[in-house]
Amino acid sequence: MATHHDYTRHCHHLSHRFHGNGLELNGVMAAARLAYIFPPACVMKLQNDRSLCVKNIPRLVIATFGVVVAVAGVAVVVMRIANGVTSNYGQEPTYCSHWPESAPNANASSLYTSPAPL
Asked: Where are the bilayer-spanning segments (predicted)?
């Protein structure tokens, strides 16, 4: 019979497995709104001009670009989840695995512990 500890460990594992996708989705939605949609919308609201006046065209273009970025970002995250790509939490990054262990100065500590050449 599964104990509370087993259930907690399983839920913790699942939360880390999908942690990266959730953060990515949150980041896409927050960044697009804060950077591209809210500023031009606030300026247009404060100006009290018609929405489709010539002065607002650059603002509308920027806000539309923000909507496109948000939709594309959500689509990328959804495709990653649908393809089974999960977070690599706790794994060594792939860019670190290219260094062979026998390479000179393979780790940063060897820079400080090796004697200086004379």
From this structure: 60-82
